[in-house]
Amino acid sequence: MAGVILRDVRKIYPSGFEAIKGIGLEVGDGQFCVLVGPSGCGKSTLLRMVAGLETISGGEIDIGGRIVNQIEPAERDIAMVFQNYALYPHMSVYNNMAYGLRNRGMAKPEIDTRVQEAARILEIGPMLDRKPGQLSGGQRQRVAMGRAIVRQPKVFLFDEPLSNLDAKLRIAMRVEIRKLQRRLNTTSIYVTHDQLEAMTLADILVVMNGGQVEQIGNPLEIYQKP
Ligand code: ADP
Ligand code: ADP
């Protein structure tokens, strides 16, 4: 496990646009942090910087005592779940989950143990031989989660993972994600524009606006203020 600390983090895109204007934030070991705010406020940019997918223009991001820019991509112990799931359409569910582990040269029995365990937790055991195209939206979302879980990362990053699901499924999955995170106790940063989702999931809620933090605290503090 590892906490995540942001120190005066800034992002200026090559266009000159300042998307993140100096954000400081501390997410403790095993905490679930939700970034919420209107479209365009910089949530995705911030998450991508933590993931090492976007360069950092100023400040630094510390994951478990190591500075993100200085960690080799292969050593970044992070798993990200995307809005569009980003599954490989021609691969079975099993292989979608196993792929990243094989690439790291993990031994087959260990891969199998991890995939089977993730499939059991996520209740997709019977679907391991199917292709993503043969699954419902909710099942695909589970596979995307499974692919993150099997890596046993120090940090989970979620970029609006439920926004492609219908309202009913979104609520069910949000409860499941919370349960899963409690069980695995993995430090998580979760981006959403849905306030209800943010309130349900967050230990720490970060309300962003215009590339800055507007409010930060636990959900009750933030939403029960007069
Ligand atoms: P959010 O995830 O909160 O919707 P983003 O992080 O995607 O916001 O975007 C924050 C701001 O940065 C937006 O105004 C967006 O238009 C701008 N932006 C995002 N990507 C780029 C880019 N590659 N070049 C220039 N501006 C960008
Ligand atoms: P491909 O579809 O790319 O030909 P396979 O389906 O043959 O790949 O599987 C590749 C590897 O993953 C094989 O070594 C196989 O043992 C393992 N595998 C695939 N599906 C399962 C499964 N449901 N349970 C256990 N191992 C599986």
Q: What is the tally of helical segments?
A: 7
* Total number of beta strands: 10
State the strand order across the main sheet: 6-7-8-3-9-10
Quaternary structure annotation: single chain
Question: How far is the first residue's CA from the last residue's CA?
Answer: 36 Å
List the ions, cofactors and other small molecules found in this model: adenosine-5'-diphosphate
Poorly predicted tracts of residues: none
General shape: globular
Largest sheet: 6 strands, mixed
Protein name: Carbohydrate ABC transporter ATP-binding protein, CUT1 family
Domain ABC transporter: 4-226
Family: Belongs to the ABC transporter superfamily.
Function: Involved in beta-(1-->2)glucan export. Transmembrane domains (TMD) form a pore in the inner membrane and the ATP-binding domain (NBD) is responsible for energy generation.
Write a structural description.
- This protein is an alpha/beta fold and 226 residues long.
- The chain has helices at residues 43-51, 93-103, 108-122, 137-149, 167-184, 195-201, 219-223; strands at 4-12, 18-27, 32-36, 58-63, 66-67, 78-81, 155-159, 187-192, 204-209, 212-217.
- The strands form 2 sheets. A 6-stranded mixed sheet has the order 6-7-8-3-9-10, with helices on both faces.
- α2 (93-103) crosses α3 (108-122), α2 (93-103) packs parallel to α4 and α3 crosses α4 (137-149).
- The radius of gyration is 17 Å and the shape is globular.
- 36% of the residues are buried.
- The mean pLDDT is 93.
- The protein binds adenosine-5'-diphosphate (2 copies).
- Residues 92, 94-95, 98, 112, 128-129 line the site of one adenosine-5'-diphosphate (ADP).
